[in-house]
Amino acid sequence: MANQTFCQFRVRLLKDKETGQVVAEVPTLGIADYGLDSQEALTRLQRMVSFHLECLLAEGQLVPREKRSGKGLYVQVPYPLNAA
Prior knowledge:
The chain has a single domain, classed as Double Stranded RNA Binding Domain (2-Layer Sandwich).
């Protein structure tokens, strides 16, 4: 079995003042998701990041790469197999 390559993106967590929900966003990709708590928001965001990367590939666009640039919160997803 080949080694799996992963993409990782810095995440910002915010609390929505109106709903009280936690919003998790990946500024590099311009996407966000939410949850009742941080764990739910991160789980939903991870699925969204995977879907977003698959959509980029389907549209013939490049998958952005982000290097870990210090401490912080990151989401990690498998790099799409058909990415160049």
